Amino acid sequence: MRIVIVGGVAAGMSAAARARRLDESAEIIVLERGEHVSFANCGLPYYVGGEIEDRAKLLVQTPASLREALNLDVRIHHNVTSLDADTKQLTVQTPTGAQQLSYDTLILSPGAFALRPPIDGLDSPRVSTLRTVDDAIAMRDRVETGARKAVVLGAGFIGIEAAEALRMQGLEVDIVEFAPHVLPPLETEIAVPVTAELRRLGITVNDGIAAQAIEPGADRDTVILSDGRRIDADLIVLSVGVRPDTAVFEAAGVACDRGAMLVDEHGRTSLPGVYAAGDATVSVDRVTGIKRPVALAGPANRAGRQIADHILRPAQARPIPSAVGTAIVRVGELTAAMTGANRASLQQAGIEFDTLHLHPAQHAGYFPGAQSMALVVHIRRGDGLVLGAQGVGPEGVDKRIDVLATAIRAGFTAADLIDLDLAYSPVYGSAKDPVNMAGMVGSNVVDGTLKLWYAEEWEALREESLILDVRSVAEFAAGHLPGSLNVPHTELRERIAEVEAAAAGRAVRVLCGSGVRSHIAHRALTQLGYDSASLSGGMVTVRAVLGDAILVR
Amino acid sequence: MRIVIVGGVAAGMSAAARARRLDESAEIIVLERGEHVSFANCGLPYYVGGEIEDRAKLLVQTPASLREALNLDVRIHHNVTSLDADTKQLTVQTPTGAQQLSYDTLILSPGAFALRPPIDGLDSPRVSTLRTVDDAIAMRDRVETGARKAVVLGAGFIGIEAAEALRMQGLEVDIVEFAPHVLPPLETEIAVPVTAELRRLGITVNDGIAAQAIEPGADRDTVILSDGRRIDADLIVLSVGVRPDTAVFEAAGVACDRGAMLVDEHGRTSLPGVYAAGDATVSVDRVTGIKRPVALAGPANRAGRQIADHILRPAQARPIPSAVGTAIVRVGELTAAMTGANRASLQQAGIEFDTLHLHPAQHAGYFPGAQSMALVVHIRRGDGLVLGAQGVGPEGVDKRIDVLATAIRAGFTAADLIDLDLAYSPVYGSAKDPVNMAGMVGSNVVDGTLKLWYAEEWEALREESLILDVRSVAEFAAGHLPGSLNVPHTELRERIAEVEAAAAGRAVRVLCGSGVRSHIAHRALTQLGYDSASLSGGMVTVRAVLGDAILVR
Questions:
Q1: Same domain flag for B304 and B339
Q2: pLDDT number for residue A17
């Protein structure tokens, strides 16, 4: 049996290694267009930034090491130019000319290529992507040979990592992002602290604006923004997204959706004997059911492994799971991460949901070093099914997002999150972990114990409601929403007549610092007969969503 | 409605706060025997050690703050001395004499008291527990007034924390633990690195030995061990375990099992209108079904909250979940944590299981700072249900244990762990996270792809098998099992004749550094017709279980 694998990075190499472990006798050939296989593609920005000093670290395996350990036949600089599924033949462009190669089973993991937006001058030699080891080496060479100014086009995960890496090397860095904020899959509440951290690092963030053209110059290029601003650059990183690299296979008859190969739950394409995995395939989102390519290393690796299972022992093969889509990025001293669906995808899918905002510390508040994070959790209206979560903060975000990713895979509701026994000592967490707290808040929302209002609604609510700020007098004085009444939650019961008078029959919309005290006040008010609601996330979320400028001091 | 709560720390205070949020009109009285309510009991060792500098930090709430925020009637120095469930009356010893107090609903959260083993001299004033704020204040006072030598009796979680705290304050510290190793609920493989770390901190660990007597002296006491050794001490910490503090309530007719109150899934005791939660109640272990008290803050807090739900809106109240029993401790620069069942409890429950050992890094190996952890995972034989997990290492242990705790709550199998989408960037994890890897190894064991052997079996296997060490020549030379044959895994296919000759028809038991290379070799050997198995955890586990002394260099 000859298994031929096209593309030797995440999915392809996992498939090859697993196939060998399952079948000592199979002939396993890996065709890689580039110079390197099984390289650390997620490490490239850190090589550019110098945290990974030695480029050899990026090369996790080599063709020689793979032959020795796993008896794999890895052929670099082998580019597949056509496929004939009827005769099971590939045409391969090699350093010594074109070859025909037959297969019994074919696995396609060609990956994706960088999107090239319609920007004049994008073919300047100062423009580069950051997708291969060679890209990273070239970029670091430019940094080490005097580049002083960089522009990063596109502030997705890789763009952000590239911007920070270049800044760490001392360059002046501008980010240009067309979407309203960096890391567009993140909610505004999470992206705002990320933007602030990028600025603290000294990176200029230009969001909500397009790059219109690149003007080549003798010493430097100039990036021209749609508002006419001009930014000089020795180095321009193109990171506006990727597109599946499937033209050859689509031409050969592999069914695709907008260029991404369609696969079934075992990774089979529409052609017999042809499997596919990784960034070039369509995944089904576990939460929304939306179908789209998911360019993440983890799912690609695991899909490759599961395809090998299906090829070599189909009766035991488990289906490739739907995608939860967990992602994470370090930004300076912050971590930002997401799992499951965000607002936009839930709205696109027509799923009704409520959003919870929490600002818990990573560990007990009484233990030194406690620092709060922002957590946003979306739950399904009605039953509280956990649909998605995002977080940002200096510590403990990765842990909570991984727990929530596991909860989403398990089909847990908010109430189920209450029951999780998470590891508690004051060094690591709280007796009520942030995830437990999210469950308590969500469960209260589901059963009606807690009625939330949102910072976005303030403008519409401020006339028709009494905005009641239950923080301390000092907190209130340091900045509050205009027109709000301050009654500290500890004085609410004795000063209820003031609230009564100020409300004048209107609803009461309560707020505090992060939502804990306003919940207590809201419960009291509700039982006293008021139409009351508690602001989700409190003033921390107000500041992120409405900005500081709105506050009265 | 008058709700009376006995005990104002974790479970009791959570019940009180939740009850108020659900019912503004209820009369809620909390009776606390001690001076403090809602104090940070898990923070006490860190106050002793000085990491928490200010004792005020330990007092999360006070009676006054609880009255202001939640209109709770908190009465300290109120000790319940009898209960009459027929007339719904308590007798309470107060600073001003005995009182009668009636209730409509009663919640018992009296907690536990320290076990006092039969050791002569235990009533010395130099012996103290570490269970209250006053204990912690007194202990730190002794440290600050010249105590130089401490002995900690009992190396459970609190004992370990106390020992490290005293060491941080510069004391000479001896730990005495009767069990074969510190932190007895941990497996040997996990406890061995903890013991080494304690010694690195300069703490003397006396394990597998009893303290027989305490001889009072003028300047110092002397702790006498069962082998006759004598250890001087200015300060002796007693932390050999706890017992539910329930004599009053058992006498009143609350059904108990070995002193712990029996409760149903809503926290109801055998007496009408009497609920109980926390350390003084029996929990059902989710994995083994074993019933025993679980002295953990998280479950206590949540049970208190759920009892308030059942009292005030029984139709909506969710059951209190069975206990997964997750626990964690920092030891110097290490974290040790556990969730679910350990070997001993699985054996006690008669559950057949396989154990997986992994030594993954906390994040991508190519990113600077990668350090390996030890993970032990028990899975049910046959279906691979995840039964329990433990870990120890410098970074990332808490995250993996929390994810595994969530997986246990979800009823996940090893195969399900493969599918988890955990947050990956080289800073935070690997494309195949340690939890995914545990799933892959476990799934391979379940379906027979991977046959494991264990370090404990070495003595029995060494004659009847060829022990094949597939590490590099240099690794082998640095220390290997006597009588083992070295063929690096990269040379296995070409040197198979050597293996054939050495095996001479016997089974082949393969090992490497941590189990990855031996798995590859094992798969090749199996397909070549050998009776082969791969050592779970490799040499790292050999060193932990058999010790370094056995190795040949």
A1: no
A2: 96
pLDDT higher than 90, residue A123 = yes
CA dist B553 and B545 (Å) reads 18
Please name the residues between 16 and 55 in chain A that touch chain B, using a CB distance below 8 Å. 20-25, 40, 42-43, 46, 51-53
Contact, A3 vs A26, CB < 8 A?
A: yes
**Alpha-carbon torsion (B203, B206, B212, B217), positive or negative:** negative
DSSP B322: P
Residue A121 inside a domain? The answer is no
Query: So what's the pLDDT on residue A216?
Result: 94
Of B45, B280, B55, whose CA–CA distance to B157 is shortest? Answer: B45
Residue A139 phi/psi, 5-degree rounding, is: -65, -40
B299 touches chain A (CB under 8 A): yes
How many residue pairs from chains A and B have C-beta atoms closer than 8 A? Answer: 252
Written as one letter, the residue type at B259 is G
Quote the number of domains for chain B: 4
pLDDT reported for residue A292: 92
Q: Among partner residues A52, A418, A421, which is closest to B325 by beta-carbon distance?
A: A421
CATH number (domain holding residue A522): 3.40.250.10
| Residues B224 and B274 grouped into a single domain | no
- Chain A neighbours among B 315-374 (CB < 8 Å)? 316, 318, 321, 323-330, 335, 337, 339, 364, 366-368
- Smallest Cβ–Cβ distance between B58 and the set A46, A68, A366 belongs to A366
- Per-residue pLDDT, A65: 94
pLDDT less than 50: residues of chain B: none
pLDDT digits (tens, 9 = 90+) for A495-524: 999 999 999 999 999 999 999 999 999 999
Query: Which residues of chain A lie closer than 8 angstroms to B51, CB-CB?
Result: 367-368
CATH code where residue A217 lies: 3.50.50.60
Give the nearest partner residue to B421 out of A25, A324, A433, using CB atoms.
Answer: A324
CB of A60 within 8 Å of any CB in chain B?
A: yes
A311 to chain B, minimum CA–CA distance in Å?
A: 15
Instruction: Find the mean pLDDT for residues A333-346.
Output: 98
Residues A54 and A132 in one domain: no
Question: Does A46 reside within a domain?
Answer: yes
| Nearest residue in chain B measured CA to CA from A330 | B427
Of the residues B429, B446, B463, the one at which a domain ends: B446
Residues 6+ apart with CB under 8 A from A262: A254, A255, A256, A269, A270, A281, A282
Q: Do B24 and A528 count as a contact with CB atoms less than 8 A apart?
A: yes
Q: With beta carbons under 8 A apart, name residues in chain A contacting B26.
A: none
**How many Å lie between the alpha carbon of A149 and the closest alpha carbon of chain B?**
26
Residues of chain B above pLDDT 70, percent = 100
Residues A278-327 have pLDDT tens digits of 999 999 999 999 999 988 999 999 999 999 999 999 999 999 999 999 99
Q: CA A26 → CA A70, B70, B516, B524, B525, distances in Å? A: 11, 70, 21, 12, 15
- Averaged pLDDT, A51-60: 93
- Are B382 and B363 members of one domain? yes
Whether A538 and A470 map to the same domain: the answer is yes
By the 8 A CB rule, do B347 and B378 touch? no
A492 belongs to a structural domain = yes
DSSP letters, A154-171, are --SHHHHHHHHHHHHTT-
Do B101 and B171 belong together in one domain? no
Q: Is A301 on the interface with B (CB under 8 A)?
A: yes
Tell which A residues from 465 to 524 touch B, by Cβ distance under 8 Å: 489-491, 493, 517, 519-520, 523-524
Give the pLDDT band (50/70/90) at residue A38: confident
Domain finish residue from A240, A267, A294: A240
pTM: 0.97
Looking at the domain assignment, is residue A325 inside a domain?
Answer: no
> Do B284 and B377 reside in the same domain of the chain?
no
Provide the domain limits for residue A192: 127-240
**Are residues B275 and B307 in contact, defined by beta-carbon separation less than 8 angstroms?**
yes
Asked if the model's pLDDT at residue A60 lies above 90, the reply is no
Q: Do A24 and B328 touch (CB under 8 A)?
A: no
Residues B365, B426: one domain? Answer: yes
Residue A98, Cβ neighbours under 10 Å: how many?
A: 11
Any B CB within 8 A of A284 CB? no
For B277-302, the pLDDT digits (tens) are: 999 999 999 999 999 998 899 999 99
